């Protein structure tokens, strides 16, 4: 394949800047270039979408990801990211459906299991959320956010011993995880283990 020239070369240069720096003006420049160029170069579109999600520009990310899926509907990562964008826009049902479709194509991706767990937890579907978060930790045993949210859901359900186990696991992996310390201390105080909670 030949190296890109003209507008496409400029798009790839802009995408590299976005990937390296994430600067807002670089994102806007890439967005303008891609609005003009309709050649469906997927890599720059994915770079743009990822940065839009990071910046919480969910409406822009939704448009970018929908554009990719129009031509490449079988890309599970794109569908998962579209779900995250839709959740950011407050469209929980659509978000869950997109991530569910992504999982059907790639159930072994721990991030997809994690994102599904978070989405379901947000909709108070805690038992199914637990199932997905547990799968995320099975697929990646050092997945700290998954252990933390497993602990949080167990605590919400009154299963304090299970919550303690999950929070301890998160802290074994990442001793700097402040939210896990706070949550663990709160439960230990509830259990009357004040000295341990203070420690």
**Outline type:** elongated
Instruction: Give the DSSP E fraction (strand runs of 2 or more residues).
Output: under 5%
How many β strands by DSSP? Answer: 0
Rg from alpha-carbon coordinates: 20 Å
Order of helices and strands: HHHHHHHHHHHH
Biggest beta sheet attributes: none
Instruction: Give helix % range.
Output: over 70%
Distance between the termini: 61 Å
Instruction: Give the count of helical stretches.
Output: 12
Q: Tell me, rounded to a whole number, the average pLDDT.
A: 90
Report the uncertain regions: none
* SSE-based structural type: mainly alpha
Short description:
This protein has 199 residues and is mostly helical.
Describe this structure in words.
The structure is a single chain. The protein is built from twelve helices and no strands. It is an all-alpha fold. It has helices at 6-21, 24-36, 42-54, 58-71, 76-88, 92-105, 110-122, 126-139, 144-156, 160-173, 178-190, 194-198. The chain is elongated, with a radius of gyration of 20 Å. α2 (24-36) runs antiparallel to α3 and α3 runs antiparallel to α4 (58-71). Helices cover 78% and strands 0% of the residues.
């Amino acid at each position: 394949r030949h190296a890109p020239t003209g507008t496409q070369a400029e798009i790839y240069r802009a995408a590299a800047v976005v990937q390296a720096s994430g600067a807002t003006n670089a994102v806007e420049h890439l967005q303008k270039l891609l609005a003009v160029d309709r050649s469906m170069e997927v890599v720059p579109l994915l770079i743009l979408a990822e940065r839009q999600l990071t910046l919480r520009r969910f409406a822009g990310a939704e448009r970018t990801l929908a554009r990719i899926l129009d031509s490449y509907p079988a890309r599970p990562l794109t569908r998962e990211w579209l779900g995250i964008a839709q959740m950011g826009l407050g469209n929980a049902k659509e978000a869950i459906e997109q991530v569910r479709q992504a999982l059907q194509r790639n159930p072994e991706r721990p991030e997809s299991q994690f994102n599904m767990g978070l989405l379901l937890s947000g909709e108070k579907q805690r038992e199914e959320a637990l199932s997905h978060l547990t799968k995320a930790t099975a697929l990646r045993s050092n997945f700290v956010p998954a252990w933390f949210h497993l602990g949080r859901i167990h605590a919400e359900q009154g299963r304090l011993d299970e919550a303690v186990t999950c929070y301890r696991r998160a802290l074994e992996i990442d001793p700097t995880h402040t939210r896990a310390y706070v949550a663990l201390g709160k439960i230990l105080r509830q259990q009357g283990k004040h000295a341990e909670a203070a420690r």
